[in-house]
Amino acid sequence: MVKRKNRLSVEEYVEGILAGNRVVLSRAITLVESSLASDQHLAEEVVNRIMPHTGNSLRIGITGVPGVGKSTFIESFGKLVVDQGNKLAVLAIDPSSQKTKGSILGDKTRMEELSHNSNAFIRPTPAGAALGGVSAKTRESMLLCEAAGFNVIFIETVGVGQSEIMVKGMVDFFLLLMLSGAGDELQGIKKGIIEIADAIAITKADGDNIEASKKAKREYNNALHLFPLNDNGWRPQVKICSAVSKDGLADIWTMVQEYKTAMQANGFFEENRSNQRVSWFDEHVRYLLESRFFQQKEVKAGLIDMLPKIKNGEMSSISVARYLVDYFLKDIPND
Amino acid sequence: MVKRKNRLSVEEYVEGILAGNRVVLSRAITLVESSLASDQHLAEEVVNRIMPHTGNSLRIGITGVPGVGKSTFIESFGKLVVDQGNKLAVLAIDPSSQKTKGSILGDKTRMEELSHNSNAFIRPTPAGAALGGVSAKTRESMLLCEAAGFNVIFIETVGVGQSEIMVKGMVDFFLLLMLSGAGDELQGIKKGIIEIADAIAITKADGDNIEASKKAKREYNNALHLFPLNDNGWRPQVKICSAVSKDGLADIWTMVQEYKTAMQANGFFEENRSNQRVSWFDEHVRYLLESRFFQQKEVKAGLIDMLPKIKNGEMSSISVARYLVDYFLKDIPND
């Protein structure tokens, strides 16, 4: 294994990260994101070494459809968080980035003020990878940020794909941004997301829009009361805010901290983290097994013929699955 | 491969099923549910042979927490469906059956009238299998029922586990049963289920409960209007009904048929079926790969040591997943 010129040693990465060196952190994340086998081995050693220094953060997932004002919210809300003495890292999962060439965090200029703040670290989404791969990379990047001393992490995603469930599975608190004026403009959001949110923040509640925002808040509150309580006893809250006037932002931050305090007190915080770690393992096992399966030459060749027959109901989905998996694993003993 | 005494030949199964012979259908489902390798091969041949005769039904998922009156609803609603000249099969997915020894469809006596109707076929849930396995067996059982001439299928499940998403993925219409009086009694239902329902039916709307049911209907209607529309343009509806007075049941059946007509007209019906078939394949591949992985001796042994370390954050979930999958697939070429 030849060490590439622009790579550091494991020791250098670990020391740099633990010292809070942002350049080294950035390079370590690049390493984690790399698909080169030699990089992956190096990344694995680095991540394993920094594991004892991870976990000391509040992880917040933020989602919302395009147009909801996610960037400006994160810019304003992030600034408030940093101004209170926190170190903030912003990461992103964007399943649409392959198609749209990066609709979120495509360039740092999107959050100009925050990106120049020495206590904030903004990392654009890794492009061109499968969602399962992006997810693992984001998790490891999050761990690296924690080891580097960032005590608040935002994981940003767009509310239109598969990624919200994934983000929900890696954060302590899941915040859904919504626009006032229920109806057409909300149709972009994915089904099921409203119910998994720990809070809904109605954005752009300023000027002529304040009354509509208050009305939306009442409506969502009524709707949420029809839903089952969260397992942890938390009743999801609805807030209104404005990234322009800054109204409501402090209230949201207070709520998130109250959530943390309550969940640490009742044990849910650590229990959830522990369950998440096991789920990450399960999900990554699944992702790796599937990747290897669908990449295999014979499986690929078989599916060219069989997939259309599965689609039109000519062949049984279950039978074809059984046949191809048996073929794929034929050399592995079935204990 | 020795043919077991109580097994028929592929020919006998296929002919019996296509002739609508309920005894043969029942025995074919037993075959599909069997975990014996010889049975599985036989089942596979049978299912592949009947594939051209499948799909000609309306598949309806019905879910709701225990206490909502699911059995009595299915008994009354099923009778109405049958009385209109349909042939109805009722199947169940019950993830809790391992623990509770079958909380749904544990015995046929639960739906006494329906179970004695010659145009209804009620099949208790297969017990003691993993959910992914149960899911595949239920899908194949559904196909067998269709080939036997049943043109309406109910897939029943309890609204408290992982199974609703699975049922949603195998039906044309997903009906959620709810009780009036939002609040405590609804807490058993799983998050995200309300949003994926095509309709909510509020049960037990009789006697003193009618007013409360009408109020609940209004509230859910308001809440559902805050949600995004379904991809297919269908606005989920809220109905009230009583299995005792039979009020509202005909209305629900009319709605389901209107849904079918509309979705066939806009192409969603067939498109959804086609997508479901591909998902069944993907899910079963995943299930089989995972089963083989987690059953392997070395993987099992490794996890005894590593799982606690994953849980407490001592080892990286991603690294362990990578290590164990690489080990598991070490003899399979990585194309």
Q: What would you say about this model in short?
A:
The structure is a homodimer of 335-residue chains. The first copy, chain A, has 335 residues and is α/β, with parallel strands linked by helices.
Which tags fit this structure?
11% strand; GTPase_ArgK (chains A, B); alpha/beta; 335 residues; homodimer; seven-stranded parallel beta sheet; Rossmann fold; 2 domains; Single alpha-helices involved in coiled-coils or other helix-helix interfaces
Give a count of the beta strands of chain A, DSSP E runs of length 2 or more: 7
Give the end-to-end Cα distance of chain A, rounded to a whole number of Å. Answer: 34 Å
- Please, how many domains of chain A? 2
The class by helix and strand makeup of chain A works out as: alpha/beta
Q: What's the order of the H and E elements of chain A?
A: HHHEHEHHEHEHEHEHEHHHH
CATH fold title of the largest domain in chain A: Rossmann fold
Q: Can you count the helices of chain A?
A: 14
Quaternary class = homodimer
Low-confidence stretches of chain A: 97-103
CATH architecture of the largest domain in chain A: 3-Layer(aba) Sandwich
GO cellular component, one term (chains A, B): cytoplasm
Keywords (chains A, B): Hydrolase
Family (chains A, B): Belongs to the SIMIBI class G3E GTPase family. ArgK/MeaB subfamily.
Pfam families (chains A, B): MeaB
